[in-house]
Amino acid sequence: MSPRTGIGTLTVRPLDPLRDAELLHSWVTHPKAAYWMMQGAKLQDVEREYMRIAAHEHHDASIGLHEGRPAFLMEKYDPRYVELVGLYDPEPGDVGMHFLVAPTDRPIHGFTKAVITAVMDELFADPRTRRVVVEPDVSNKAVHALNEAVGFVAEREIDKPEKRALLSFCTREQYLAARGVAI
Q1: Which helix (H) or strand (E) element contains residue 131?
Q2: What is the spatial distance between Cα 159 and Cα 178, in angstroms, rounded to a whole number?
Q3: Sheet-wide strand order for 94-101
Q4: Residue 107: beta bridge partners?
Q5: In this predicted model, what pLDDT tens digit does every residue of 122-170 receive, in sequence order?
Q6: What are the pLDDT digits (tens) for 25-76?
């Protein structure tokens, strides 16, 4: 992905658990990342978690870059094997997603929406992806609004071991319609 947006160019690169651990640690333990649920994590905990993800056959992570500098985290997973096992009936082409925008002292208006749009573009670039699945915390109203803005439709609340989540889906068609792209 390398879309040029109103805020600049966004790209992704594979996450390197060892090289990126310190950077990720500063992101996931920041107070603005409370919903990431790693507030008390030590550097080794973050390193271990992302090594686990890198080794997992059905889960991967990428670092998002803004104008070549690390600016967000993107995780992609197969909900048949990760996160949502037994919590809903997956359909062929379902892809789960998490994203986290890095904390900054100089926020850019519209940046988070540009990031989720770039993430969705990346996921739908794979022709096998038919629907993106998310499960944010029910109390995370900001991300619910953002998800809705790119085409997600909330289906129902579910109980995960770590949180009460809002299970939501976005088909390729819903995403394109939200972007104003004729189908």
Answers
A1: strand 131-134
A2: 28
A3: 4-5, 8-14, 59-66, 69-77, 94-101, 131-134, 164-171, 153-159
A4: none
A5: 999 999 999 999 999 999 999 999 999 999 999 999 999 999 999 999 9
A6: 999 999 888 888 888 999 999 999 999 999 999 999 999 999 999 999 999 9
Buried residues in 108-145 as b, exposed as e (16+ CB within 10 A): eeebbbbbbbbbbbbbbeeeebebbbbbbbeebeebbe
Q: What single letter denotes the amino acid at residue 27?
A: W
CA-closest candidate to residue 170, choices 162, 179, 161: 179
CA distance 73 to 156: 26
Rounded distance between C-alpha atoms, residue 83 and residue 75, angstroms: 12
Assign 147 to helix, strand or coil.
Answer: helix
Place of tokens 């197969």: 78
Compute how many other C-beta atoms are within 10 angstroms of the C-beta atom of residue 59: 18
User: Which amino acid does the sequence have at 138?
Assistant: V
Which residues, in sequence order, are CB contacts of 32 under 8 Å at separation 6+?
Answer: 103
At 152, give phi and psi (nearest 5°): -70, 145
Reported pTM? 0.92
Q: Which two tokens stand for residue 57?
A: 């056959």
Q: Which tokens hold the place of 115?
A: 């990031």
